[in-house]
Write a structure and sequence with these properties.
Largest sheet: 5 strands, antiparallel
CATH architecture of the largest domain: Alpha-Beta Complex
Number of strands: 10
Helix content: 40-55%
Strand content: 5-15%
Number of helices: 10
Strand order of the largest sheet: 1-2-3-5-4
Number of domains: 2
Length: 289
């Protein structure tokens, strides 16, 4: 079945692409996207669940690509369920490779990232369909905690509940300036040339939302640690609001629960056990720290 679906995507690329096709390779088949590389120079990204959120993303890319401090997808062709854009060079932003760079080169990358986040979070882009929770899950206790808690071990459920209760109590009254957020920054959606070294691209804005700027630091907190975030903030010139550290920790942990919510909503239940293992490890680490 998947092979047939893949052939359908490749056939659609051939029908839409105006130039000669020397190669067309499916390079990703994920939860949200199917990505086809054409001639190792163009990307076709098909959306599994097209709708208003995809229209928001397309409009944003067209508006922000010309002014972004770091290259992002610049659509050259769009349809109801795909965008095509010149391929961005680079490899995924691996923590272990970043750790091997000199302090000077690390600072250069942090500066790039800080300038990008500052520009994104101050963007005037707006859209009638732009929302804080584009895929749902806005009520943490009802939508995210409720379905996940029975799946956790008793010990982890207790640790997690204590963490969320304590953290939410502190940040419920937090004052911050909502802004445009990528919502899924981390290792997978940042492209790097480690030989230069420099950031060469930021991709996949499918989770674009209007929300807490802390959400765009959560993936770095989870994958690189607190020190990385503190260093990144040296290059970030937007207001943080109060309880910023607590908001980052909350967004980081919330993301794991949201992934289960998303997996069940869109039929990826086979991945739930692995995500549950990640949650168990997360709250074991939080407790020990």
């Amino acid at each position: 079945m998947e092979s047939t679906a893949n052939n359908d995507y490749l056939n659609r690329v051939k029908a839409a692409f105006s130039g000669d096709i020397e190669s067309a390779e499916l390079i990703k088949s994920g939860w949200s996207n199917v990505v086809v590389d054409v001639n190792q120079a163009h990307i076709f990204r098909f959306i599994r669940h097209p709708g208003p959120q995809f229209e928001v993303e397309k409009a944003f890319l067209q508006a922000f690509a010309p002014v972004s401090p770091i290259p992002i997808p610049a659509p050259t062709l769009t349809a109801a369920d795909f965008i095509a854009y010149p391929r961005l060079a680079g490899e995924r932003f691996a923590p272990e490779k970043f750790a091997m760079l000199s302090a000077e080169h690390q600072d250069m990358m942090l500066g790039q990232l800080g300038r990008f986040l500052s520009a994104l979070h101050s963007s005037a882009f707006t859209d009638d369909h732009l929302s804080r929770f584009p895929y749902g899950g806005g009520d943490f206790w009802r939508d995210l905690w409720g379905p996940v808690e029975p799946l956790l071990s008793q010990e982890t459920a207790g640790r997690a509940k204590h963490f969320f209760e304590q953290t939410l109590e502190r940040i419920e009254s937090a004052s911050f300036q909502p802004c445009l957020v990528h919502s899924d920054l981390g290792t997978n959606n940042l492209l790097v040339d480690f030989d230069q070294p420099k950031l060469t691209g930021i991709i996949d804005f499918s989770d674009l939302a209007w929300g807490d700027p802390a959400a765009d630091f959560a993936g770095f907190y989870r994958n690189f640690g607190q020190t990385f975030v503190l260093q990144l903030l040296d290059y970030y010139d937007r207001p943080l609001g109060n309880y910023f550290g607590d908001r980052i920790a909350f967004e980081s942990a919330r993301k794991q629960f949201f992934v289960i919510y998303f997996a069940r909503k869109f039929g990826f239940d086979e991945y739930v056990p692995t995500i549950l293992q990640n949650i168990e490890k997360l709250f074991d680490t939080l407790t020990r720290d």
